Amino acid sequence: MSEMRCYMIVTADIADRDAFISGYGAATAPLVAKYGGRYLLRGPGARLLEAPDVGAFGDGASMVISEWPDREAAMRFWNSDDYAKAKALRAGVADVQVLLIDAPKFTSEPA
Where are the beta strands (DSSP E) in 16-111? Predict the structure, then answer.
């Protein structure tokens, strides 16, 4: 297992916040913990400062950033049957963009 932490960054354009939180949000939160992740940020109202297109996805969106012990843990969560069931709860309620990135390894030596 890798020692490099990984971050999942979700941008969501939510049409029905109450349905999203009570359905998808309630089902997903315990799964993040179950699969080894933890939330660093969950909040609405992102402000888009730069994008290639005016009106690009993101302005006013909700953002979620979760930290994982490594990419494998994040992918176990993402590909699990548990999460597939939870993910179905956001259909028709939110459009999302999901990114996964490994934390950089900082050293004092040049690469």
Answer: 38-43, 62-68, 94-102
Q: Is 55 helix (H, G, I), strand (E, B) or coil?
A: coil
pTM as predicted: 0.85
One-letter amino acid at 18 equals D
Domains of the chain by residue range: 1-46+78-97
Structure tokens at 50: 């730069």
Spell out the per-residue pLDDT of the chain, length 111, in tens: 446 899 999 999 999 999 999 999 999 999 999 999 999 999 999 888 887 776 566 778 999 999 999 999 999 999 999 999 999 999 999 999 999 999 987 666 555
